[in-house]
Amino acid sequence: SVATGCPNGRMLCIQKIGSDCIKANAQSCGECIQVAEKCGWCTDDFLKQGESKSARCDELKSLITKGCSKAKIENPRGSISIDKDKPVTNRKKDVAEKLKPDQITQIQPQKLSLNLRSGEAQTFKLKFKRAEDYPIDLYYLMDLSFSMKDDLENVKNLGTDLMREMQEITSDFRIGFGSFVEKTVMPYISTTPARLLNPCTSNENCTSPFSYKNVLKLTENGQQFNSLVSKQQISGNLDSPEGGFDAIMQVAVCGDAIGWRNVTRLLVFSTDAGFHFAGDGKLGGIVLPNDGKCHLENNMYTMSHYYDYPSIAHLVQKLSDNNIQTIFAVTEEFQPVYKELKNLIPKSAVGTLSSNSSNVIKLIIDSYNSLSSEVILENNKVPEGVSIKYKSICKNGVVGTGENGRKCSNISIGDEVSFDITIESQKCPSQGKSETIRIKPLGFNEDVEIVLNFICECECSKGGEPLSKICHNGNGTFECGACRCNEGRIGRLCECSTDEVRTDDLDGNCRKDNGTDICSNNGDCVCGTCECKKRENPEERYSGKFCDCDNFNCDRSNNKLCGGHGRCECRVCICDANYTGSACDCSLDTSTCLAANKQICNGRGTCECGVCKCTNPKFQGPTCEICPTCPGVCAEHKECVQCRAFETGEKKDTCQRDCSYFNLIRVKDRDKLPQPADQSYPLSHCKERDANDCWFYYTYAVRNDTMREVYVVETLECPAGPDIIPIVAGVVAGIVLIGLALLLIWKLLMIIHDRREFAKFEKEKMNAKWDTGENPIYKSAVTTVVNPKYEGK
């Protein structure tokens, strides 16, 4: 595993790559290369004192880091060799020349040899191409119980009709016929003498019950098929499920009796009922499991009363072993049952049979097209520790992996598909022998033979020296740079017997002095010699005669061992060139102290460990260029520049005496002043103001700590005086505008007030109520006189 995070902000993470090789504690090269594909064995003499021979086994990069020569590392690799690679056949049906079945190749290559090393996968490509006009053997297995009476009539002409239809698919077609009813024991049939002769009722003439009969061996003669089928008679039984599984088993295993060739094999199973399977035989007192062998005598199955029905798994195995593809032609009622059965039997199909089997030819052709358009790869049992993965590259570039990697669908005749097959071994077989596995497409007679050779020993072991003097006077075999001890001997050089491993005398040799732990508590005492413990991180090691040294407990800088600029040996840092210090954190390189003026620390300090140490405490910064307490350069030289350039300022009277320490150079405008990018020495741009509020611009530079230069713009920038007329006009206009605004506001307020008063008057007038009585002192101006003599005439 690889560390994916750095705890506690650590910048250096420990990687555990290769730790599996260390943990294996391999004692020989052969043991080492079986641990993992990344492990190698060093035959070089590179081990330090205190390291065991198992330290020779590690990841290749780690071995080289430890000092092993790359040429001395044993790291055998796996390989693939193709032993038989006959190309797939490009066969056309209309070609006059006809090939025999064994001359047709649909799968390539046919034989390979793989050299497998533990943990290293080997991948090869397998091609499959459906050959045109490929021969077909079809065996029609029919239920002849009484319910199939009308179906038998329609099957009597099946031979010639099916021959004619199959000519569109292949010119080499053979057909056979078989029938089944049920086991000939109670309670499946009636065993009374009369019923054994004729199991049917209602005056029907039926044949005696039987389990399975091979009526016609596979033949090219369709007329013979029709003739023999026409002679068949219906039989009968008592229960609804039939004994079809007994018949399927015999058809699968009796290849000679059926006449199967190594071509496409189709078995059409026609029935209108369910099926008995393993365990149902107990009802008739039959307890022996089906043995999966052929028991045909005179084309009749003779052991139905002796062996139980086969199980579904047993049928699957035999059908697969004999490359038989099954088509279940069943009535609508039993479709769900047989569809479930189809899911358990690879390369099988289910078709709906009409009540009288009138559609059987179309059903067979449709089912054959469905089966032949799909290729499914399977392999036999693989050795323990070996795994196989499939990846399919199907039609139109469709890729399948996992279980879908075993198959391709919708394949037409002439289509070519391929499979990437990966085989990996995790360990060597106990016997170390070669193993053979086979991969084949279901329902086809061709397969691929794969011979697996396991790499269990290193090449260097072949040159081993048995009973070598190096191994303590012959107590082991010296091979691959180390001793492989004989039984009962241990130690780096097989110098110790297992009986004397733990003794006080030997333990005393593993103590640095009497007061210390055995092997400094960092190892084990083996035969009086310390063998240091291994660390989780393969880069970390204990070493030394008493395991008192290590390469990981040195001083650190920036959380890195030896600052990342050295190696740790026996807890002391050995620094790389240009570095020094206990943690190799002191660089002797002075380039980091170089200032912009190419001086070391601006001439104001010394360079120590790549960092400037300023001699004057008032200066600081990476190159002693900053002085926080010093007056600014511009303010410091303002008065002198002012007096020399413009003869003004506080020092104009003492200018010659106080201000002659720099060279003054006048320029016409600011664009002519030197720019910092153009100079190789410190340069300051200044902008200052005099007593008349005029601005002047200059630069101050120091060359080589002695020569000072001042560039100054010879023209002052003074602010212009105020224009009186616009100011006065503006004030007068402002006063007039303010007065007019005030008058308008006053007028507006008066109008609002008058309108409010008038409205109030109108309201009071409307609300006034006057007294309607007469005035007592009022006298009318009109006098009325009555003529006494007037009579109204």
Q: Would you kindly provide a written description of the structure presented here, covering whatever features stand out?
A:
The chain is α+β, with helices and mostly antiparallel strands and 793 residues long. It has 16 helices and 42 strands. The strands form 14 sheets. A six-stranded mixed beta sheet has the order 4-6-22-21-16-19, with no helix packed on it. α5 (158-166) packs antiparallel against α7 (222-230) and α8 packs parallel to α10 (312-321). The termini are far apart. One of its GO terms (biological process) is cell migration.
Total helix count? 16
Calculate the terminal CA-CA distance, rounded to whole Å: 152 Å
The helix-and-strand class reads alpha+beta
DSSP summary, beta strand count? 42
Concise account of the structure shown:
InterPro entries: EGF_extracell (IPR013111), EGF_integrin_1 (IPR040622), EGF_integrin_2 (IPR057073), Integrin_bsu (IPR015812), Integrin_bsu_cyt_dom (IPR014836), Integrin_bsu_tail (IPR012896), Integrin_bsu_tail_dom_sf (IPR036349), Integrin_bsu_VWA (IPR002369). With 793 residues, this protein is an alpha+beta fold.
